[in-house]
Amino acid sequence: MNRKRWRRNLILALLIAAGLVAGYRISSVQRPVEALSFATAYVALGLLVATLSIGPLNLMTAAPNPVSTHLRRDLGVSTALVGTAHTVLGLQVHKGGNLAGYFLLPASGNLDAAAAFVATNYMGALATFLLLLLLALSNDYSLRQLGKLRWKRLQQWSYVIVVLVALHGAVYQLLEKRRPGGVLLFATLVASVILVQLRGVAIHRAQT
Predict the structure, then answer these.
(1) Taking the C-alpha atoms of 83, 89, 93 and 99 in order, what is their torsion angle to the nearest 10 degrees?
(2) Global pTM exceeds 0.85
(3) Do residues 165 and 45 touch, judged by C-beta distance below 8 A?
(4) DSSP state of 176
(5) CB 199 within 8 A of CB 55
(6) Residues with Cβ < 8 Å from 111, sequence gap 6 or more?
(7) Cα 190 from Cα 146, distance rounded (Å)
């Protein structure tokens, strides 16, 4: 890893740390594990948005847009790591850490809310699985073995991830009755990645 990449990754690590600290401090919860779950959720979403924005931004600025770059790869790795941390932490927030309670419907109670809770947890778990899968492919060896076309097609599962994350996050905004500021930040991040992707698709179609 060259000096430029080391420096960029150091800056990225500092930004992630700052985001985690900010998210922890502004969360409206008291338990540390819940505050960390909140912070990692928003930082992971921000990293995912940044990762998926690189290609469209390259198209908008007429910059080279190769299949894989160190910047996109490093952002993707960071997304997977912070996203996985969020999953681990999030599974400690509700149900007293009882994993079955996250994925199985209760026998009684508010079944509508329980169904939404269980469904969104499955979406989050699937998103985490896909993040780890793409993390395993984020290296030169996988790119050489799979070839550019096949590797790129697998990386396009990142679009499925963002849909799953958006749905997962939206349900939790409702279930946990998040404060307006958190809802606005979540909506802004999701809207921004959608708009940037749509713009990128429009430019790509115009060029082909």
Answers:
(1) 90
(2) yes
(3) yes
(4) T
(5) no
(6) 105
(7) 31
Enumerate residues 6+ apart whose C-beta is below 8 A from 49.
Answer: 162, 189, 190, 192, 193
Q: Provide the 3-class DSSP secondary structure of residue 199.
A: helix
Q: Helix, strand, coil: what percent of the chain each, to 5?
A: 80, 0, 20
Instruction: Encode 124-141 in three state secondary structure.
Output: HHHHHHHHHHHHHHCCHH
Angle at 156 between CA 118 and CA 91, to 5 degrees: 25
Is the distance from CB of 78 to CB of 135 less than 8 angstroms?
A: no
Contact between 194 and 181 (Cβ < 8 Å): no
Both tokens of 185, joined, read 């930040």
pLDDT in tens, the chain (208 residues): 688 899 999 999 999 999 999 999 998 777 999 999 999 999 999 999 999 999 999 989 888 888 888 899 999 999 999 999 999 999 999 888 789 999 998 877 778 889 999 999 999 999 999 999 999 999 999 999 999 999 999 999 999 999 999 999 999 999 988 888 889 999 999 999 999 999 998 998 888 7
Q: Which pair of tokens denotes residue 180? A: 């307006």
